[in-house]
């Protein structure tokens, strides 16, 4: 926890580089922030303003319960019961300072040293969100299961779960995945979730499903991908991608045997999450404002933006290079695989940086990029592009990426290994 993970080093490098050079225009396609959508921003400003006027003295000038602001906890329970037919109450809910903190708490509670031996946090499929790799306080306390690759057509591919490998692992304490995933945008189907639940049951561990990009909000994976209730699943949700990343608010919904220790952990560490934004969230849930934003603004925005970026890549990247785009059902990124021996993700990153463009190297999303047996060089042949910058920035950045790929190809021909 005292050192930066791989991607954090990259993001720190981007911040340092852009901050140290004045007068230069940077094209940042590595950014993880959600897009600034005026209707979303204005709605949250209004919701927060109403909460500020109505309840500032009660929620911001007093300590509150560690489980969460009662009005927020009750609104969350009512929302999920009404929308999905669940039967949950306050005992099934905890509100925390961001979904990543809730994932960290779950890792601290369910993995590490124990009476029966050391257990690990397991990512059922890599690549997955690199922030997970900083969740363990134990050295080598996190491992990931490599996927199987399936080529789909000329320019697309897809990752598949290797369930036998997952089921055969030892020392599992907790399973965790994002759906839609960061970086690939892959949604786990209801059938796959059920098979993951069965694997978790076989290991007798919880399964955390991070719905930060999924349903019900922000819904950047299609509203049909509903979260699944199961006594073994800890469903984690975030308000960040729905428009409030800076407020650090998330919540978990699960069986109370999993929620109660998380509440205790929060009480012992942070006491509770910020309460003014909890009040704003309660108002948004009760008024259906959030559902309206997702259906009419957020969902359509990202669907249209993804079509734009995928079309741009298809028309811009060199035809004589073997590259594939991961088929994505959601999320805020495009995940590109360049299947050429001469390609290296860090070399691409450094070359693009000198041209004023930033992407994210792919290796940091894998837990064993340097020693992969089944995937070979694949973890070092991928990179992530954000679809959230404005379209002019994306178009200009992709043009530079295409040119650099062509230069890397030409250099490999002149100087073969």
TrEMBL record:
One Pfam entry name: Aminotran_1_2
GO biological process, one term: alpha-amino acid metabolic process
Single annotated GO MF: valine-pyruvate transaminase activity
GO cellular component assignments: cytosol
Aminotransferase class I/classII large domain sequence ranges: 25-401
Transferase keyword on record: yes
Cofactor(s) required for function per UniProt: pyridoxal 5'-phosphate
Keywords noted in UniProt: Aminotransferase, Pyridoxal phosphate, Transferase
UniProt-recorded name of the protein: Aminotransferase class I/classII large domain-containing protein
Protein species of origin: Streptomyces fodineus
Organism placement in taxonomy: Bacteria, Bacillati, Actinomycetota, Actinomycetes, Kitasatosporales
